[in-house]
Write a structure and sequence with these properties.
Largest sheet: 7 strands, mixed
Strand order of the largest sheet: 3-4-5-9-8-7-6
Number of domains: 3
Strand content: 25-35%
């Protein structure tokens, strides 16, 4: 967005009621004709701007488009969101963020996309990403941690998603190990972390998040392994994507700051409080092959799943969990 167009948008957000063309022209030091052209650009971007002769212009509605300008208005974060890249379409936000991180993008940079043609899920699965309805984003972090500690950040992003849902809706979600957020047992969000590391340290970590905000029932694929839902289906109304996106980044920022100061323990404790499986019987499988079954006893300091089976207390590093 052109700086002058952005400045006009900021003035609309700062002031109530109509703003005269003369006032806009004076404050931005441009002609009335230039003001009209910037107003036209905003309208073409989906902003509803009323114009009345002798009164001026008034912003009456904003589009539900994921734009850096709109998301930034709601941000209070210190690190997460310091740079926002909003794309209409991409193959995968994780792939984009990984490439940007390799090129030196700063910690806290976030890639959003309105749709993905090759969204990634765990274990090489596809994440269906229809346009205009959901939230697909990837965050670049550069924590000073060892590579074996990087999986801890998956739990951090799961808690951030759960918090964002609670802060923007009346829904109380649950979390399933290792990277699913559920509502009434149905998957509403998935997380995928990727990293670049060396033997003695971590170069960067990519936190990938896909949240089903306004997806309709007929947009879910018929071959899904587990039932899924969206906030819209649960609420019976649409959820505004921009405020949700900003809330998610704000909560992720708070959790990341806490992680840097206190380590994994506070995140681990909150994750376990939100987990839907504590004390329940479950199975863990690798594809169609069952690894183990037993009672869920939480996660350890590395984020590994702890299962009390016939063999004793087992520590599981990967697999699909199904609650019995």
């Amino acid at each position: 967005m052109h700086p002058k167009t952005h400045a006009i948008l900021n003035l609309f957000h700062q002031r109530e009621g109509f703003v005269s063309g003369e006032a806009l022209s004076r404050e931005l030091a441009v002609s009335r004709t230039a003001i009209w052209k910037h107003i036209k650009t905003l309208r073409e971007a989906g902003y509803v701007i009323e114009a009345i002769p002798s009164r001026g212009y008034q912003l009456t509605a904003t589009p539900d488009n994921l734009s850096a300008e709109e998301i930034e208005r709601h941000l209070s974060s210190a690190i997460i969101g310091r740079r926002l890249i909003c794309l209409a379409e991409t193959t995968s936000t994780n792939s984009d963020a990984f490439r940007l991180a390799e090129q030196g993008a700063p910690e806290g940079a976030v890639v959003f996309a309105d749709t993905q043609s090759g969204g990634k899920g765990r274990m090489g699965r596809r994440w269906v990403s229809p346009p205009g309805v959901n939230l697909y984003c990837s965050v670049i972090l550069r924590p000073e941690i060892m590579p074996y500690e990087a999986p801890q950040l998956t739990f951090l992003s799961a808690v951030a998603v759960a918090r964002a849902i609670e802060l923007t809706t009346p829904i109380i979600p649950e979390i399933k190990w290792p990277n699913d957020v559920l509502v009434r047992g149905r998957k509403i969000a998935g997380l995928l972390n990727e990293m670049s590391a060396e033997t003695d340290g971590t170069n960067f970590v990519i936190l990938g998040m896909g949240i089903n905000l306004n997806m309709a029932a007929n947009q879910f694929p018929s071959d899904m392994r587990y039932p899924a839902t969206s906030l819209c289906l649960e609420l019976g109304r649409a959820v505004e994507r921009v405020p949700f996106a900003a809330t998610l980044l704000n909560e992720l920022d708070r959790l990341y700051n806490e992680f840097q100061v206190y380590g994994f323990r506070p995140v681990r404790e909150e994750w376990q409080q939100r987990c839907n499986a504590y004390g329940r019987e479950l199975t863990v499988s690798d594809g169609d092959c069952e690894i183990t079954r037993g009672a869920f006893e939480g996660i350890d300091d590395d984020g590994a799943l702890l299962v009390r089976s016939r063999k004793g207390l087992e520590r599981i590093l990967s697999g699909d969990v199904r609650i019995l």
